[in-house]
Amino acid sequence: MNIKSIKFVKLHRQLALPLFVPLLLTGISGIAYRLGRSWLGLPKSFGQAMMTIHEGRFLGEPLVPFYVALVGLGLLALIGSGAVLWSRFRRRSPAKLPPERNIHRFLAPIALLPLMVSAGTGIAYRLSINWLGVSEEQVEFLMTLHQGSYLGSTLRPFYVLLVGAGLLIMLLTGVQMLGLARRTRRESN
User: What is the pTM of this model?
Assistant: First the structure.
């Protein structure tokens, strides 16, 4: 592994650790919101509770745009650093890698575009409303992209489920790899 690759691995890990819990909460609450409202017919109060978690409203309303921006930009940075790592290591034999690394490596290029769209539209929607004073109607198209509404009411929950599950699987396999890396370093010392 060359020095540039080592730097990207370090960057990816350093980003992943502090973003794990916020991204986990965001993924779970996004899935729960859409499936709860669409499939289970749960009330708006449930949806509002999930959005409180999804957008970080539990920190206070003034911090919502900061939370959305930090978590969303953090996800985009993880995607970017992960894409660089994937391109550098894609030729390694899967047989020599632990299962969680193979899953992570296989899913990364599949999840890349949907996660980029979800993060980018979520950031743009929230910041347009909060910081630019744009009305919800003017940026409704961003929410349409964010939650896959263009697919129709039948397919939208499946889209959210797939994007959210992709994020959750990437997070969980990534955390497993971090534990594996720590164990390997301890064993080599």
Answer: 0.90
